């Protein structure tokens, strides 16, 4: 008998992990719909407000590998609860922040829980189901991230518009409290009877050249996405001419595109990983480049918001799978590093977009500048594939003998 009746269904504990992923995804992305309010209230430029995304992303980049190592000897359930408490405290501090500096510090504190939650959560998720459902379990947990963009971010932007940006962080803090309680109630305690791999041994798997190239693809691809998405509110209102109230519905379109792209990229990557990897990066560069010609058309920008969501998240599954396949050891750490790479890309993209806005050529040029980054990522991917295909093969004579035998 391969699986117990309890594992034949989707365990409730998986949905507890989804709730945590929803809260984390909301707090990461929601600031993009609040840039103008934060900028006006704290008396900083839009570019400076955009750096709140960079600060969060860099916190994930640093925190993911460090906290993964620090919590490796804790029971998984204990680690998840501790991470959600850090997340909640960080959001409470954001809601109460009296200045830009304090808000930045609060965002960094919040971000520390991000990468490790998804790393540990993936391990817990796969332990809750039978062997043939592990990938589905991980996808259920990550659904919380896409739903956060589909529903949480537009709702947060609406709250910020009508009740002030602090109300959004109060709401996310409440989500953190609820998610912590659900995880404590539903996630089973692990026995902790398996010896954890030494951190040095895990790092050896990360040092594989193909893993490093995969991480670089992730950084470049998502730097392009966030060079635009970070400043989507001012682009839509100041360049395209939408009213502030239209931003939330358009973010909903982007979130719907993310869900579609996530499912599409996963299915295609299961069939042909390399082709999907190359095709999704090319599609992302094409969408970002073409968006430059749609900036002054409201219908076109609504359509391109959805296309950007599709193209951006179609890359996630192939990028993640590529890194995991090439990691010879320490796949949990490799997964955490790739989440860190996504967020390093977010930080670089937010910084680059801010530079284009502040030092020229301005908001209208952000999209075509952003398109150059996934093009670089595609170049790295082609180089990676070429290196892989150029590995020495057995001599023809040996191959013939093997055929005869």
UniProtKB/TrEMBL annotation:
Residues 13-389 form the Major facilitator superfamily (MFS) profile domain. Pfam families: MFS_1. InterPro entries: MFS, MFS_dom, MFS_Efflux_Transporters, MFS_trans_sf. The keyword Transmembrane applies. Its main location: membrane. Keywords: Cell membrane, Membrane, Transmembrane, Transmembrane helix. It comes from Rhodanobacter ginsengisoli. The chain crosses the membrane at residues 12-36, 42-67, 79-98, 104-130, 137-161, 167-189, 210-234, 246-266, 273-295, 301-321, 333-353, 365-385. It is found in: Cell membrane. This is MFS transporter. The keyword Transmembrane helix applies. It comes from the Bacteria. It is a multi-pass membrane protein.
